[in-house]
Amino acid sequence: MTDITVDGLVKTYGDVTALDDVSFEIPEGEFVVVLGVSGSGKSTLLRCLNGLTPPTDGEILVGDETATGPRRDMAMIFQQHNIIGQMSAYSNALTGTLGRTRFLGSLLQLQDREEKLMALEALETVGLLDEARQKARRMSGGQQQRVGIARALVQQPDVLLADEPVASLDPGSAQQVMGYLRTAAEERGLTAVTSLHQVNLARKFGQRFVGLRDGRKVFDGYRDELTMDTIDEIYGDIDTEGMLAETDIDGDDEETIDQPAAGGGPVA
Q1: Are residues 54 and 167 in the same domain?
Q2: Residues 108 and 227 grouped into a single domain
């Protein structure tokens, strides 16, 4: 497992400041949700964490090392899935080995048996083992995002990042995807950071919350501290009624999503 330290992080694009002196620490194994409206700096923060976007100032430490670019021990799940529709769920999951397998060998599925079993195990974790041979293009958006989670797990990361992973999904699929994401992180002891704008999902699945507004950190705390006052501080004048519709903001019970039973493995 790996802890993360963000110290005085600044990111500017010309005259626009996307992140303004953001600092926080994430202990290893914690599941953190970054909250904020579109344009608050959530995606920029995730891209700085995974090395896709270099910071203008400040420092990011992963364990004891300064993060200066993409890392093999960090896996990223994107909003638009980024999976290959013509390939099966299994083949897409297996592409998670690209960081340690030559491209041609990966394309021809020449990975060893251990790697292939790892892909099947990842699909089982996200409830898609029975769909391993299904073409990704024939899957629902929620299933495709779960394939993306499986692919990320095959990378064998210490840190799991997810940038608005359920933004394009209906409420039921969003809850299911977040449930599998949380389960995957817990089962593997991963440090996880996911950005969301839906407060209801954040409260249901998050352990800790970092709120961004106009690029600045305005909140950092746990579920019982995520009150209506702090939500107003994060979201300002935005109407949050829809964000809270499916979860009582004053409730402290953590709900879980039922996981489907695992099926037999179709490939090896």
Answers
A1: yes
A2: no
Fill in the amino acid letter for 16: V
In a 10 Å sphere around its CB, with 0-12 CB exposed, 13-18 middle and 19+ buried, how is residue 52 labelled?
middle
**N- to C-terminal Cα distance for the chain?**
28
Tens digits of pLDDT across the chain (268 residues): 579 999 999 999 999 999 999 999 999 999 999 999 989 999 999 999 999 999 999 999 998 888 888 888 899 998 877 788 999 999 999 988 886 666 555 565 667 788 899 999 999 999 999 999 999 999 999 999 999 999 999 999 999 999 999 988 999 999 999 999 999 999 999 999 999 988 889 999 999 999 999 999 999 999 999 988 999 999 987 655 555 544 443 344 444 333 333 333 334 3
Other beta carbons less than 10 A from residue 244's beta carbon: 15
- Full residue range of the structural domain in which residue 190 is found: 1-73+158-258
Q: Are 159 and 74 in contact (CB under 8 A)?
A: yes
- As for how many domains the chain has, the answer is 2
CB count within 10 Å of CB 13 equals 10
- How many whole angstroms from its chain centre is CA 24? 18
For residues 218 and 173, what is the distance between their CA atoms, to the nearest angstrom?
29
Same domain, 171 and 152: no
The conformation of residue 76, written as its DSSP 8-state character, comes to E
Strands lying side by side in the sheet with 208-213: 74-77, 159-163, 191-196, 31-35, 208-213, 216-222
- Largest Cα–Cα distance of the chain, in whole Å? 55
Q: Are residues 66 and 170 in the same domain?
A: yes
